[in-house]
Amino acid sequence: MSGFALLSRDFAALGVGFGQVILLHSSLRSLGHIEGGARTVISALRGVLGDDGTLAVPSGTAGNSDTSPLYRAAVAGMTQEEAADYRSRMPAYDRATTPSHQMGRIAEHVRTLPGARRSAHPQTSFAAVGPRAAEIIGGHARDCLLGERSPLARLYDAGALVLLLGVGYGKCTAFHLAEYRYTASPPRRSYRAVVDDGDGRVWCEFEDVAVDAGDFAALGAGFEQTGAVRRRRVGAAEARLFSLRAAVDYAVDWLASHRAPPRQDQ
Fold first, then answer.
1. Is residue 109 in some structural domain?
2. N or C end of the chain, less CB within 10 A?
3. Domain that holds residue 153
4. What's phi and psi for 49, nearest 5 deg?
5. Based on the structure, what is the number of domains in the chain?
6. 8 in a domain, yes or no?
7. Would residue 141 count as lying in a domain?
8. What is the pLDDT of residues 171-187, one digit of tens each?
9. pLDDT single digits (tens) 18-63
């Protein structure tokens, strides 16, 4: 049986089906050797979803922000002049051409598919392909990384499923939506990024929720105990499939009881 046929069988056995909306987080390496690589994986998955199915992936970037951990690591040890020179050469975000960063080869393949659409956020964009792609990625506000005006909220409304393919709950962006919902006043911080919206290189600064995935592994372990997660092997990878809405709703309660309440002066 070919790699395509094996993956198609495994996706279907996991619970992927015709017409679903899927948010995929993935590691190609975890699947073992797959002839054709990311192209074969996505062809198999979209084949099971069918023409009415929609597939979304994170396509975020960090190399265009000077408030990101990537930037801080890059300029560590530099002089002030060297850091300023590095900052001046950081690539501006262009959603049509800027590659995703640390999202994996499968996600990057989806971003470059014919007909794929990508949201406009310069740090936490999503790409999607399928009949509901425009609905999901549209309206991603610059001052909303992963909240109510982001694709995550549209995926929640669409009844999407989350597919973790060879990655753990630490990569589950759906939980970030709960960070906007678990309290009326979540902690906030400033962000900066350099963008190109067609008029040249411009720096933008905005304030938004201080997102933090540091406790998502523990959160995910608790969610899995509810019995809401389907698990099986897809290729050589451990895969999990579950309702994005159920995950977010659970995370709202979990974060409210496990995270310290924000300081009143924040």
1. yes
2. N
3. 3-57+98-115+129-187+212-258
4. -70, -30
5. 1
6. yes
7. yes
8. 999 999 999 999 999 99
9. 999 999 999 999 999 999 999 999 999 999 999 999 999 999 998 8
